[in-house]
Amino acid sequence: MLSLSIASFAQSKGTLTGVVIEKGTGETLPNASVTIVGTYYQALTDFSGAFTIDDIKPGTYTVKVQFIGFSPTQVNGVKIKKGQNKPL
User: Fold this and answer.
1) Mapping DSSP to helix (H, G, I), strand (E, B) and coil, where does residue 55 land?
2) How would you list the strands of the sheet with 14-19, edge to edge?
3) Which pLDDT score, from 0 to 100, does residue 6 have?
4) What angle do CA 37, 22, 58 make, to 5 degrees?
């Protein structure tokens, strides 16, 4: 019974995935910080610029990306739905 409860709980949240790239060159940015504004959800990109943030409550969020030497960038209106893997 406990495992069913945990599986059900996990499906009630969503996941945000993506790759951070430098707009001018198209190069990926490893170790960039990706934060969902107003929450504790955040991740660092891996060597290939990819990130994943799991267990996000459904809702509409602003995602902020920061990397040393670049101005922070925000993406508004990112919708996370339960059980969804949202690519950004």
Assistant:
1) strand
2) 50-56, 14-19, 85-87
3) 35
4) 30
Place of tokens 């920061």: 66
Q: What sections of the chain are H helices per DSSP?
A: 2-11
Stretch (H or E) spanning 87? strand 85-87
As a whole number of angstroms, the distance between CA 72 and CA 68 comes to: 9
* Cα-based distances in Å from 72 to 9, 13, 21, 37, 56: 33, 27, 13, 12, 22
Closest CA to 57 of 31, 76, 78, 71: 78
Write out pLDDT tens, residues 21-78.
988 898 999 999 999 999 999 999 999 999 999 999 999 999 999 999 989 999 999 9
Asked if 44 and 33 touch (Cβ cutoff 8 Å), the reply is: yes
